Amino acid sequence: MHLFDHDILFEPGEPLSFAGQITDNWSINGIPDGGYLMAILANAMMQHSEMKATPIITANFLNRCEPGDAEILIEKMAASKQFNRFQGSLRQNGKEKIRAFGTFSDENRECPLESYEASCPEITALEKCLPVPKLPDYTLFGQLDVRLDPACTGWLSGKMSAKSESKGYIRFKSHRPFDVPSILLIADSFPPAIFSSQGMVAWVPTIELSVNIRKIPTTDWLKCSFRTRFITCGLLEEDGEIWDQKDELIAISRQIAQFRAPAG
To answer: CA dist 139 to 31, 71, 127, 160, 189, Å?
Structure first.
């Protein structure tokens, strides 16, 4: 079993409940990555959903999670010919940490229209992109191979850009095919886009993250682009696009987060 599959697998208990461990293998500065936590919740929902395609997962992060024991409670909200809808709650130490909502559709439904009014963002060739190094407190980058477009890496040397953008390529370091949980992880695995324009801030905590998965990719790498356009009173949005190497759209995301400048 791949490490990621092991780390998102919670054991079923009472009806619609699960128990397991949030591990430290997918953390940013010691804090479990939000996409990893969404993957845990989505994996639990999918165990009770007859439909599993093109999900929309939205998570509200109420309190900071920590590595350790956790419980998940799932509730089926509605079911129709088109969609299964769930809500899920992740709890630690008796306190709700995340409330998530999931909508799943039928894998066999007809696709009457596929039309793109935008194309895959331009990203520098893979061999010219810069790998994110493994850092002691950033275990996420020990598990994922993230290659950043040089146009988005000026902040590493103190050269700020006028554009808040983070883009490049991503895959697991230890090969694993992509699926719903892994795409949720990837949607929150690039350095925040505002690093390009504001530098490496102390913390960019997620308030809400929504990911809509359009299809499951088969290519080795995924191409990602994340963009922030507005920072207002300490709040920002980050809009993401995930594409495969055939320039087919895999997922879109929107994250609402806080901007917290370094102390002093």
So the answer is: 10, 23, 24, 26, 11
> Based on the structure, what is the number of domains in the chain?
1
Classify burial at 87, counting beta carbons within 10 Å of its beta carbon; exposed 0-12, middle 13-18, buried 19 or more.
middle
Residue 185 lies in a domain: yes
Residues 133-164 pLDDT 10s: 877 789 999 999 999 999 999 988 888 899 99
Q: Which structural domain, as residue segments, surrounds residue 223?
A: 3-106+124-258
Considering the entire predicted model, what is its pTM? 0.95
Residue 39's SS3 state is helix
Instruction: Give the whole-angstrom CA distance, residue 190 versus residue 175.
Output: 19
Q: Which of helix, strand or coil describes residue 59?
A: strand
CATH number of the domain enclosing 101: 2.40.160.210
Query: Is 82 buried (19+), middle (13-18) or exposed (0-12) by CB count in 10 A?
Result: exposed
Exposed / middle / buried, residue 57 (Cβ in 10 Å: 0-12, 13-18, 19+): buried
